[in-house]
Amino acid sequence: MKYCFDIDLDIPVLKPDINLASVKDYHNKFTVTEYVNIELVKFFKQRNLVLLPYIEIFSSEPNYVGPIHVDVGHGDFAKLNYVFGGKDSKMNWYEPITLDKPVETTLGNREYIYYADHEVKHLHSQTIGINRPSVVQVGVPHNSTNYSEHRYCVSLVFHKIERGLPRPTFNEARDIFSDLI
Fold first, then answer.
1. Which helix (H) or strand (E) holds 170?
2. SS3 call for 163
3. Is residue 107 within 8 Å of residue 34, measured between CB atoms?
4. Nearest to 102, CA basis, from 115, 116, 113
């Protein structure tokens, strides 16, 4: 199974007046209308996709290891991440030893399932696109490991524009963005 692919998309994720250095907390939620470049919103619409009304920005100091978690619940779905800074940082994916974990609600009423190190088995690690977007698998346990410099990750959830607004699977996302891989 693949867990991540970079795309050649030359559209900045944020509006020009947004300063990432002003984001201090590890996990932050902001609205798409206030923060996201309108050209990126149009790009998604052209591909029959819609963004959730908010984005998450993760700000991590050097030598930070993020919590191992699954977004929303176990499954197969993708997210688009733009990473800035974080030289040599990696994203890691894991196999859960048990699926019997409680769902926790966090910032912005987002549901996550958290794991301790001993509750997962490491599957894969890789550097994801620095200063360019990456589509990442978030339906399996994952986290990021930051090393020598501050890292910002702007994370966007996208859905298909159709009845029920389903999230694309990782392979469907690969097909949707195939011309940019």
1. helix 170-176
2. coil
3. no
4. 113
Categorize the per-residue pLDDT at 129 as very low, low, confident or very high, splitting at 50, 70 and 90.
confident
Quote the CA–CA distance of 126 and 142 in Å, as a whole number: 11
Token couple for 28:
């932050």
H or E segment to which residue 174 belongs: helix 170-176
Alpha carbon of 176 to those of 77, 135, 163, 172: distances in Å? 13, 11, 18, 6
Which structure tokens are listed for 96? 């859960």
Q: What tokens were used for 115?
A: 């794991």
Distance CA 177, CA 71 (A): 21
Q: CB neighbours (10 Å) of residue 34?
A: 11
Q: Helix (H, G, I), strand (E, B), or coil: what is residue 35?
A: helix
Reported pTM: 0.93
CA dihedral (65, 68, 72, 75) positive or negative: positive
Angstrom distance (rounded) from CA 30 to CA 21? 15
Span 92-109, pLDDT tens digits? 999 999 888 888 877 666
CB 107 within 8 A of CB 25: no
CA dihedral sign of residues 93, 101, 113, 168: positive
Measure the CA–CA gap between 145 and 138, rounded to whole angstroms.
15
**Closest to 138 (Cα-Cα) out of 96, 79, 55:** 79
